[in-house]
Design a protein that fits this description.
The complex is a heterodimer of chains A (334) and B (73).
Chain A: H1 2-17, E1 34-40, H2 47-63, E2 67-68, E3 71-79, H3 84-97, E4 102-104, H4 109-121, E5 126-128, E6 144-146, H5 155-164, E7 170-176, H6 179-194, E8 198-205, H7 213-216, E9 226-229, H8 235-245, E10 252-254, E11 275-278, H9 287-300, H10 308-314, H11 320-328
Parallel strand pairs in A: 1-3, 1-4, 4-5, 5-6, 7-8, 7-9, 9-10, 10-11
Antiparallel strand pairs in A: 2-3
Helix pairs in contact in A: 2-9, 2-10, 3-4, 5-6
Chain B: E1 12-13, E2 19-31, E3 34-46, H1 54-57
Antiparallel strand pairs in B: 1-2, 2-3
Classes of the chains: A alpha/beta (334), B mainly beta (73).
Chain lengths: 334, 73
């Protein structure tokens, strides 16, 4: 029962803070804090992005003095190490031991897929970050929403731009040999070919590929007029360096993970000219973005890398739909 | 802070629990000795279904290694 009450508190707090929903506030503020469990990656190959997720939500809560609509918010951070089995163990801890009211994350789709059914059984409101299309399409859970982008989402406008603005006609794609790569390429191909272009070759390499030269050797500039690279993690850095080292001059395009603002300092001049598409950009000249950047620099230092991962969790993206579903479970009427 | 006023620009949830948002097309440039992204175009209200009808979209299989297939040349 305690958890039901605290979920109600959470809804009241977040709906007011985000100016969404019409859920009544409790008459008297409860003393027990509302708990958010953040599942992120702080160790291993995905740690850079994982740390940025934590910075984003921490920055948002600090700006709000850890209070939303008068309710104290407590953040519990779990490190999944980017390993599905660890993510499962951490999810169980957050749900059954920490009794969190909401889970944010996990970072990677393969982690989310590993805990989706468990969280569903516990009707745990979840704001996941992984991209796998079907988590919000063919196999979605009514309590789980995505606060990042679906894998293909940024590739549609990129393909539109490539065809209509850049007048490109023949693409070779190159990416990591797993679902995130396939789904990005599928999105690009659909729109690009719908506009009259053609994907003529798809190159897939294992995530831990040390050397892209055998793949780059398959790029024939006489066959194609553009290369679309959809790598994740640190792979864009390696691929683009070797791409230029091989003397390839075809224009290079990529999605939301190839040139996030937070990784730009890791590139050399080989990245100049790279066209990329993403839901957040550091140069967005709005009050909300300037305020976000100022807060990040205040809490984490003037040199803090800032990009989409932090920006996506800066605002509490709580959905009206999720509120309705929670209401339907009698949590709000008990 | 409303969902209309995030650091990313306006965002909103679709009926499937995924956000629609602005997608920024950017070009990497060197400015003041540093590599930065410069926004060169933007697309508002981009959905996970792009401009396709969601019901029709969901009738096709999820994108995979072989879908959509390469067309014969």
């Amino acid at each position: 029962m305690a958890r039901k009450i605290s979920r109600r508190k959470f809804l009241a707090a977040t709906s007011a803070a985000a100016a969404i929903g019409q859920i009544a506030k409790p008459a008297v503020a409860q003393q027990k804090p509302v708990k958010i469990g953040l599942m992120t990656v702080k160790t291993g190959g995905l740690a850079a992005g994982g740390v940025h997720l934590e910075e984003g939500i921490s920055c948002f809560l600090k700006d709000k003095n850890f209070k939303l609509a008068g309710q104290t918010i407590e953040l519990v951070v779990a490190d999944t190490a980017g390993v599905p089995a660890t993510a499962k163990a951490k999810a169980i801890e957050l749900v059954e031991r920490d009794k969190v009211d909401l889970i944010m994350g996990p970072l990677a789709a393969f982690e989310w897929l590993a805990i989706k059914d468990y969280l569903g059984e516990h009707k745990m409101p979840t704001m996941g970050f992984g991209g796998a299309e079907d988590l919000t399409q063919r196999h979605r859970d009514p309590y789980q929403v995505r606060t990042s982008d679906s894998s293909a989402q940024c590739l549609y406008p990129l393909a539109d731009y490539a065809g209509k603005e850049m007048k490109l006609k023949a693409a070779i794609t190159a990416g990591d040999d797993f679902a995130f790569g396939y789904e990005q390429v599928g999105g690009f191909q659909s729109v690009f070919e719908g506009d009259g272009g053609r994907v003529i070759k798809k190159l897939w390499s294992p995530f831990n590929t040390p050397d892209y030269v055998p793949y780059l050797a398959q790029i024939d500039p006489k066959q194609a007029d553009v290369v679309v690279a959809v790598y994740a993690g640190a792979n864009p850095l390696k691929f683009i360096k070797q791409y230029r080292d091989q003397g390839i001059t075809l224009p290079l395009l990529g999605g939301s993970t190839v040139a996030d603002d937070s990784i730009m300092r890791n590139f050399g001049d080989e990245a100049i000219g790279l066209i990329n598409s993403i839901p957040y950009t550091l140069d967005l000249d709005t009050h909300a973005n300037h305020r976000f950047i100022a807060s990040m620099q205040k809490y984490f230092g003037a040199d803090i890398p800032i990009g989409f991962y932090a920006a996506a969790l800066y605002v509490n993206r709580f959905s009206k739909r999720l509120c309705r579903q929670l209401a339907a479970t009698s949590i709000l009427t008990s | 802070m409303s969902l209309a006023d995030t650091p990313c620009g306006p965002v909103k949830f679709d009926d499937y629990g995924n956000l629609t948002f602005t997608v920024y097309i950017r070009k990497v440039e060197k400015k003041g000795g540093k590599l930065v992204n410069t926004t060169i175009n933007s697309y508002r209200d981009v959905s996970q279904f792009w401009r396709y009808d969601p019901k029709e979209f969901l009738k096709q299989p999820v994108f995979s290694r072989d879908f959509p297939p390469l067309k014969s040349q």
